[in-house]
Every structure is written in C-alpha cells, then in structure tokens.
Amino acid sequence: MKRQISFGQALATVVGSVIGAGVFFKIGTITAQTGSTSMTLFVWILAGIISIASGLTISEIAASLKINGAIKYLDYTYGRVWGFLFGWAQMIVYFPAQIGALSSIFGVQFVSLFGIKARYSNLIAILLVLFLLGINLIGTKFSSKMQSVITILKIIPIALIIIWGLFNPAKIPAPIIPLTVGTGHSFPTAISQGVLSALFAFEGWIVVTNLANEVKNPEKDLSRAIILGLSAITLIYVLINYTFMTVLPIDQLTNNNNAAFQASMKLFGQFGGKLVTVGILISVYGAVNAFMLTGMRTPYILAQDNLLPFSNKIGKANIHTGVPVVGAFIVDAIAIVMILLGNFTVLTDMLVFVMWTFNTMLSVAVIILRKREPELKRPFKVPWYPIIPIISVIGGIFIVVSTIINQFVLSIIGIGLTLLGLPIYYYMQKKNN
User: Fold this and answer.
1) Do residues 132 and 284 make contact, with C-beta atoms less than 8 angstroms apart?
2) How far apart are the first and last CA of the chain?
3) Which DSSP letter does residue 1 get?
4) How does DSSP classify residue 257?
5) Given 3-state DSSP classes, what are the helix, strand and coil percentages for the chain, each rounded to the nearest 5?
6) pTM: predicted TM-score of the whole model, two decimal places
7) Cβ of 312: how many Cβ atoms within 10 Å?
8) Is residue 118 a contact partner of residue 111, using CB atoms and an 8 Å limit?
9) What gap in Å lies between CA 372 and CA 127, rounded to an integer?
C-alpha cells in the first residue's frame, strides 16, 4: 500500500472516528446514572483522561514498531494467537457494531428530520452503509480527503452550540463543585456506570493504527494524531455537556435522548432543532465513514498472514485504488445484519467491553517491551513513564471488571464471540503447517 495519508488526514480520521452520536446522545444516560451536574462533568473528564493515557501509551508502540496496526502489536508482544483474536473481534464485533449502530442512529434522525415513516429508518441505515461502501471503493485517498472535509463540517454545529451556550445570558446553575451525586445514587456506582457510558463516545481512536503503513510519516504523525485528537475531543465533550446542563435542568436531561435537540431549541429557537439534527447527521455520517475506512483493513491484515479461510482473496487490495475490496464487503455485510437485528445499546456496550480488554493488553505491552527490548529505537516515548501506562492499565482493568460485574451476560457474549475465532485460528495454523 502507498504512503499517501498526511498528518492532517490521520488527525481527521481520529476525530472523525470518535466524534459521532455519543456527544449528542449520552448526556441523558449519564445524568440518569450520576444525578448531578458535577459528577456528570467529572465522568466525562475521567473518561478523557483514561483515553488520553491509553493513547499516549499505545502511541509509543505505534511509533516504535515498523508494523501495521494494533493486531501486529499484539502479535509482536504476546504471540500470533492474541493478535488474531483482536483482529477477529474487530472484524466480527467492533467495526460492524460501530458501523451498524451509528448507521441506525443516522436512519432514525433522518426519518425524523424529513418526516418519513419510522419503519423506513433501517432502510435508510442500510442505504448509508452501501453508499459509503461505494465511496470507499473509489480509493483510500479520495475517502481520506472526504473525511477531512466531513470532520470540519461536523465541528461547526458543535462549536455553535458551545459558543452560544457559554455566552447565553439565561444560564441556569450547573455547579461543578463540590463533587456530589444525586439523591438515591451511590458514589462508586455513579462513577463506574458513568465512565462506561462516556467511554463509548471516545471509542474509535485506536483504529487509526490500521493505517500505519499508509501514513506518510508514521513515526511522528501517528502518535501526534492520536494525542492531539483525543485532547481536543475531551475538551469538546466537556464544554458541550456543560452547555447542555446550563440550558436544561438536570431532571429534564435525565434519560432524555432528545436533550441536544431541546437545548438547541432554547438556544436558537425553532431553527435550532433542525440545526442540531443536521449536525447529528453530518457527525454520524463522518463517524461511519471513518470506521469503514479503517475497518475494511482488519480482514486484509489477517489474510496477509494467511489466518483466514480464502486468505488469497481477502488479502488482496485493488491495484488501482489500494482498497481491500473483499475486506470491505465482509465488514459491511456483518454491519447490515446487525442493523436488521437492532438494539443500539447492546451493540455499543459489547464493543466497549471487548475493545478495552485488548486496549489494556496493549498498554501492558509497552511495559513488557521496555523490559524485553530496552535497545529498541523509540521515536516517541510515553511521557512520565511508568505513571501514564499505569493509569491506562488501571483504567482498562476498571472498565473490564465493572462491565463483568454490572453486565455479566453481555460480557460473556462478548468473550464468547471473541473465542469463536480460536477454532479458525488453529485450523488455519494446521493447514499452513
């Protein structure tokens, strides 16, 4: 594959992958879990700190190892089976669930905006997947440039809401100190559930490592894109959620999936509701495209090592566009099945659990490689080592353990789907030998 993706395009992929529906939809869930404005903002900040610590930590591997993506990082550190399981989980759970869940939200918002019957929302979602599949098949360079444009467009409505909200003369009190929880809420439960919900809105940044072999200067640009992207996203999330809480009282925000719409109505009048809906559509569109751009490369990477059936087909990229066509069809076909099955919440909770299990392993890998290969050339070193990696590891363990405790059945399903890859792995190993 050609090195044709610039730093700006890599940064746009990070921001475009992460900022999707979560920034608009999670405020209702998190306020229900925390019961206070101070704790709501705190869990957003804590989720951002965990994500940035993880991004800083994994950036060291991305800059040091001349290999493509997190799958290869796990291969290198723990052995091929772990890299395969991560790629397998990405291929059948993570990317299809992201594309399917976000496309479903797009369909719901689209029919609402244009007054179309609700039963057509799934059709709209599937048409979006097929349309973006066609765009990405045109070529990586084209879809990456489009991603940069969409990222700029999706920031505009968010910026308008934040600026108007901060200078709104009719603010309602939204105390950020002292740190408290609402009546009937427990402090530990509010933190654990709130952070889990907020982390969905931060999902997606690690997928940019799949583009390592296509970024022009991966040693510098990959880590910079991850760090700057996550820092900007954390600031955006904190500001927009603070804006929502200064416009609507917390009892109106709790469990309210239309909080962004109602807050915009108060800020901008009747036009505000339509503005924020268009903003959601643009934001979700960009997120789906970013996940598709990176997700199609997961089957390709696995097939390059002959780890999937029909690897000779899956492991080929179009000679003119550089696009792994079969990989794109695999991921998008599973996404369409997930759209038809439905249930946005189950899909998002499962993907967060599965991904943070492997993210934690990647953070531990930095510590392992520091001990195992001290002479390895590291163009980027995680600052304040080992404090930042320890924060990342503790945060990851907290996420995984909290999910097992609070959503045991869901975590077992996620583990089960991941382990389904083991028979395929050992079959292919036997066949290759």
Assistant:
1) no
2) 28
3) -
4) T
5) 80, 0, 20
6) 0.81
7) 10
8) yes
9) 49
CA proximity to 125, closest of 344, 349, 343, 336: 336
Q: Sign of torsion, CA 76 359 335 285?
A: negative
Among the listed residues 183, 206, 246, 189, the one whose alpha carbon sits nearest the alpha carbon of residue 41: 246
Closest CA to 94 of 194, 15, 218, 200: 200
pLDDT of 291 reads 83
40-93 residue pLDDT tens? 999 999 999 998 888 888 888 877 887 767 888 899 999 989 989 998 998 998
Q: How many Å apart are CA 159 and CA 162, to the nearest integer? A: 5
Q: Let me know: does 22 contact 233? Beta carbons within 8 Å.
A: no
For every residue of 298-367, DSSP letters joined together read HHHHHHHTT-STTHHHHT---TTT---HHHHHHHHHHHHHHHHH--HHHHHHHHHHHHHHHHHHHHHHHH
What is the Cα–Cα distance from 8 to 182, expressed in whole angstroms?
42
**CA angle, 133 as apex, 119 and 73 as ends, to 5°?**
115
Structure tokens at 388: 């930042």
Angle CA 125–287–52, to nearest 5: 145
Identify whether the C-beta of residue 111 lies closer than 8 Å to the C-beta of residue 120: yes
The rounded Cα 202 to chain-centroid distance in angstroms is 5
Q: Is 184 left (phi over 0), alpha (psi -120 to 50) or beta?
A: left
Task: Say what the pLDDT of residue 368 is.
Answer: 96
Cα–Cα nearest to 30, from 275, 210, 244: 244
So what's the pLDDT on residue 21? Answer: 72
Mean of the per-residue pLDDT values of the chain = 84
Question: Which residue in the block uniquely carries the two structure tokens 């309210």?
Answer: 256
